[in-house]
Amino acid sequence: MRLQDDRLLRALYDGIFEQPLWQSFLDILRDTSQSDFVVMSFRSPDDPTLTSLYSGEQAGEEVDIIFTRRFADKPMPFWEMREDRVYSMAELVDRADPLQRAYHDEVLTPWGMTSQYSVRVAEKGGTDVWLSCFGRRPLSVSVSARLSTLAPHLRTAMRMFMALEQERFRSELSAEAFRKLNFGWLTLDAECRIIDTSPHMERIFERSRALRRGRYNRLVAQRPALDREITAAVKMLALDAAARPIAFNLSRDPLMDVLIAPLRTKALVSQSRPVAIVYVNGDRESQADRCEQLVELFGLLPSEARLAWAIAQGLTISEAAEQLGLTVETARSYSKKIYSKTGARGQAELVRNILTSVLAMA
User: Fold this and answer.
1) What is the pLDDT of residue 205?
2) What local confidence, expressed as pLDDT, does residue 268 receive?
3) CATH number of 287-361
4) How many Å apart are CA 17 and CA 165, to the nearest integer?
5) The pTM is what?
6) Domain 181-282 maps to which CATH number in 3.30.450.20, 3.40.1280.10, 2.60.120.260, 3.40.1440.10?
7) What letter does residue 218 receive in the DSSP assignment?
8) 4-168 and 287-361 in the same fold
9) What CATH number labels 4-168?
């Protein structure tokens, strides 16, 4: 059967991206079927609760409460509908059965619906979907044929929707992890223009002056010499996709590093061709803030905390002493107290204890 200028099919597939979901599809189906009410209901395998989208006048809050309390968890025929088969109201409501007669009298009659056609499909992951048309007057048998034609398309649309929802959920979890670790990424074209970014990247731009969006959406480093190096690296990667990644330090306080690598995964949807991906990682706090946290966390003195943080950044005892204006002997004396208070048995363990402590998630 042809579906009314294919409007229903277009609306069904476009409904995945619509808010509210599938509203246009339900409105068109209600109009073309001359129904008074059209509803699409979902039930996932791990949640018996029905989620419904609809077009038309609902049954009313009181009737909904009656249905939920009395019939939603009962062995009603609509739970056992065979896939792809269209059922009429007469097939779904047997008035000789006390439970079904009560459903008719307490839900359908107050609502005013006398005619119904419904079909059920099951998405591959186990989600059940019911699509139903209700009428206050007898619905044409053509409505049954229309639902039968829609069933395989409804299953495909649901499969696409569930795949998108799964990817959205994974993306949100990844974004949350990146946010906590102050980690972001962005892709660049050969002219160093930003094409796409991770959600948290905009926060990193806001918090740090070391890196920013410039004119024409170009990635710009605060230091001119470093900006030239990054631009040259991106142009080199655009010419040689097999080149090795290149790392740059953007800032020491707070610490921020970037790694620029060739982009080997090609995007099908992009106005400009990305050639490089830039991984950005940094500390959200200044050295002074981190030292205060070390004082609170491990009971270090401020002078000990400053030395501990310097060592955690990879400096040797002598390098840290020079940076902090200490003698090597004083730095070694401090380091013994630091090892004792943090439970570290050497520099490597001290670095691990500090960088994997709660400071990493602060």
Assistant:
1) 86
2) 56
3) 1.10.10.10
4) 11
5) 0.66
6) 3.30.450.20
7) B
8) no
9) 3.30.450.80
Residue 224: helix, strand or coil by DSSP? helix
Low-confidence ranges of the chain (pLDDT < 70): 1-5, 253, 266-271, 283-287, 355-362
The pLDDT value given to residue 164: 93
Q: Phi and psi of 197, rounded to 5°? A: -145, 160
Quote the pLDDT of residue 330. 93
Sequence-separated (6 or more) residues with CB below 8 Å from residue 290: 283, 309, 359
Query: Residue 2, by phi and psi: left (phi above 0), alpha (psi -120 to 50) or beta?
Result: beta
Angle, vertex CA 155, rays to CA 149 and CA 158, nearest 5: 135
Whole-angstrom Cα distance, residue 314 to residue 302? 19
Please give the structure tokens belonging to residue 51. 């989620």
Type of residue numbered 42: F
Helix, strand, coil abundance in the chain, percent, nearest 5 = 50, 20, 30
Place of tokens 């996709």: 241
